[in-house]
Design brief:
By secondary structure, this protein is an alpha+beta fold. The chain contains 11 helices and 9 strands.
């Protein structure tokens, strides 16, 4: 089993195990990956009650040329982000930036201004909460290379403090719409945040430049239509009722085997 590490908060040890700080209610928890009894990778949630989905590519229906590499990669486990605030802020931090740079910026920002969490000799940091974001000066954003997302993070922090409790109770489809009331939060950011928070990747913007390149690399000889709208329609038709599983597994495959220079959408 593989653990999906699309969230930029995942760090790694010299041995290759992954770990990450997460906010669960009022608690800070450090979760980690390790080797299970059968040699599979497992997630140690540190005793917290977290939502982890196991997605098995053997259950996929669809073209064999696309199913086969996903099956070869194996089952994927993904932990849903327990914090809507972190999911929203993380999606903002990923706007218009290469995936590798987004990880660097996110971790640097958290290490500078977030709460640290240590367990088993590993330390990671939470993303600063909304009040902490609003207390930061322009210079503090600039120092850690976060001048670009500064205005969007401040707008998100103000709006989340006013509406976050209600948003957490919304159905996922309605949440996608609600998050777009925040200035500089568009469809890509809201869909990325809600997919991270719910693990429902049918809500993800699967026409974006993360899914498309991975889908095309699954079988470079397959002819996909050009352009985001045409690809989106073809992807929906191919995936059918398994849209979430297809999207999640393809993203996980792309992270593990694909390129890391894809840029996120603008908003």
């Amino acid at each position: 089993m593989n653990v999906m590490t699309d969230h930029p908060g995942w760090l790694h040890t010299e041995a290759g195990n992954r770990y990450r700080a997460v906010s669960v209610g009022d608690s800070a928890v450090l979760i980690s990956t390790g080797c299970g009894a059968g040699g599979d990778t497992v997630i140690d949630v540190g005793g917290a009650d977290l939502h982890v989905d196991i997605v098995d590519p053997d259950a996929l229906a669809g073209p064999g040329d696309l199913v086969t590499p996903l099956k070869d990669a194996g089952t994927v486990a993904r932990m849903a982000n327990p914090s809507l605030w972190d999911a929203l802020a993380t999606a903002i931090m990923r706007q218009v930036i290469q995936a590798g740079h987004a990880r660097t910026r996110y971790v640097r920002f958290c290490a500078a201004y977030g709460e640290s969490v240590t367990r088993n000799a590993s330390t990671a940091w939470l993303f600063p909460d909304p009040r902490r974001i609003l207390s930061l000066s322009d210079d503090e954003f600039q120092i850690v290379g976060a001048a670009f997302p500064q205005s969007a993070l401040r707008a998100a922090a103000r709006t989340y403090l006013a509406h976050g409790d209600r948003w957490e109770r919304l159905p996922p489809v309605d949440l996608v719409t609600a998050l777009q009331t925040i200035p500089r939060v568009g469809a890509w950011t809201s869909r990325t945040a809600v997919a991270d928070y719910t693990n429902d990747f049918a809500l993800y913007d699967y026409s974006d430049i993360a899914v498309q390149p991975a889908a095309r690399r699954l079988n470079p000889e397959r002819a996909w239509p050009e352009g985001a709208p045409a690809f989106k329609s073809a992807w929906e038709a191919m995936a059918g009722k398994q849209l979430s599983a297809w999207t999640l597994l393809t993203l996980a495959w792309g992270i593990r085997y694909g390129k890391s220079d894809d840029r996120s959408a603008a908003s």
